[in-house]
Amino acid sequence: MSSQVKTSIFNVTEYGAVPDGQTLSTKAFAAAIEAAASQGGGTVYVPAGVYLTGPIVLKSHINLHLDSGAIIRFSQNIADYPLVNSRWEGVDRLVYSPMIFGEDLENISVTGRGILDGQGEFWWKEFRAKNLEYPRPRLISFSRSKNVLIEGLTMINSPAWTINPINCQNLTVDKITIKNPADSPNTDGINPESCQNVHISNCHVDVGDDCITLKSGTEECSERIPCENITITNCTMVHGHGGVVIGSEMSGGVRNVVISNCVFEGTDRGIRLKTRRGRGGLVEDIRVTNIIMKSVITPFVMGMYYFCGPGGKEEFVWDKNPRPVDEKTPIFRRLHFSNITAREVAASAGFFYGLPEMPIEDITFDNISVHLADDPEPAVPSMMSFLEPMAKHGFFCCNVKNISFNNVQVIGNVGPAFEAKSCDNVEFSRCSMINGPADQPVIQMTKVTRGFVQGCQVSADAPVFLELNEMDRDDVELAGNRVKPEQIRINK
Questions:
Q1: Domain that includes residue 487, residue range
Q2: Which terminus of the chain has fewer CB atoms gathered within 10 Å of its CB, N or C?
Q3: For residue 191, is it within any domain?
Q4: Per residue in 444-463, pLDDT tens?
Q5: Same domain, residue pair 393 and 461
């Protein structure tokens, strides 16, 4: 990427930028960028100092580079932000210009060891007071661009989403630190939207909303472009509503995603997939491995009843009866999780709720350990209507097809370690419950078609290992379990 950018250097101070933190330098940044563009590209260099500016509009073949000690503070004057056509929360609309912005570009980068300060406190206050006519600026947002590099910088106090590329190709985000207050509204960290070939690595993200989110627009978008071929690795996520999230804007689909070698601490949810009826879109081929989580509400969430946003509380969304399947029916399939440890979990080890007309399909959990917190505050594991707060629950599955748990351990739960309801083909191999309640089953199945349990064990004095509700004993195959016949309970 860097070899594609011209080596000519254009120092913003030579074009009138003043590093005093008070003089508005918007025109100086624009002049330096224009000078670089007129020569086919180059590096727009920001030396040490504090610069106040409005939006920076980048052009092709340009690297905006902040030296160590350089701070760009973005204006808090709404008049400095023209309206541009973009996308916000999955809908094409007018928005206040992003702070670093560009469209239809190629070979662009924003790099260095400096700081981008969005001065979001002003915008958060205006948002909460409902004084803003249009959505707040994002810190960085490029549209319809290719060969994009964002590297090395620290980004703080974004007014809204911090990094939000839209319909970009060949995107690299590396060694970025993002710090937005935990209570700041909608300050997501990194949100690739309808992007292809994305690499996010070595980042630290501490924000007030989702840390990293993969999106592809809502049903109201004019184009259905997938977000695909994504790697997320060696990142740390702190606070926020989710560590890595897919959706809820996923009408264009999300596929071919690998998430590995990450640490989540204090995020509400860990890995979270969210959508609802009417949104459509296909999420498939997601692999998550080598993850450590601590102090999360729920490590794994897959929900198709997401109620946030316009229309989210309508009966069409929350109805638990099957509806006709059409192009607006969302699909989750081929989701694989391995080598994950979660400690101090509050609500539930995992919560998966598909649609009766479209179950979540083909899920595997391999080498997973979930330790419930000793005395957590009850919380809802997924944002859906009529779901009550819970604490210390195990894995819950409803409307899921082809799910397997291999070497999965649940520690310190209050109910069943594993609960499956209205599922088809549920498999357990070498699973266990430690320090769970003596009067609760390790596995509870209700209206399950085809269950398989092998290599599991329970203490000899435990009253029940497997509980079947509205099922026959023949609905479940048992193999190699250290279980007495009387430790199987059947409730017709």
A1: 210-492
A2: C
A3: no
A4: 999 999 999 999 877 767 77
A5: yes
Q: What spatial distance separates the first Cα and last Cα of the chain, rounded to whole Å?
A: 64
d(CA 35, CA 41): 8
Return d(Cα 178, Cα 348) in angstroms, integer. Answer: 28
- Inform me whether the pLDDT recorded for 375 exceeds 90: yes
Q: Both tokens of residue 354?
A: 């598909």
Q: Is residue 198 part of a domain?
A: no
**CB-count burial class (<10 Å; 0-12, 13-18, 19+) for 223:** exposed
Asked if residue 290 and residue 387 are part of one domain, the reply reads yes
Backbone angles phi, psi at 490, to 5 degrees: -120, 120
Residue 87 lies in a domain: yes
Percentage of the chain with pLDDT > 70?
A: 98
Whether 209 is catalytic: yes
Looking at the structure of the chain, the number of domains it has is 2
435, 286: one domain: yes
DSSP 276-293: -TT---EEEEEEEEEEEE
Strands 269-274 and 236-239: unpaired
Catalytic residue among 117, 188, 206, 209: 209
Would you state the pLDDT for residue 439? 84
Q: Give the span between the Cα atoms of 64 and 60, in whole angstroms.
A: 11
The CATH number of residue 104's host domain is 2.160.20.10
To which residue do tokens 């599991």 refer? 456
Q: Are 246 and 286 in contact (CB under 8 A)?
A: yes
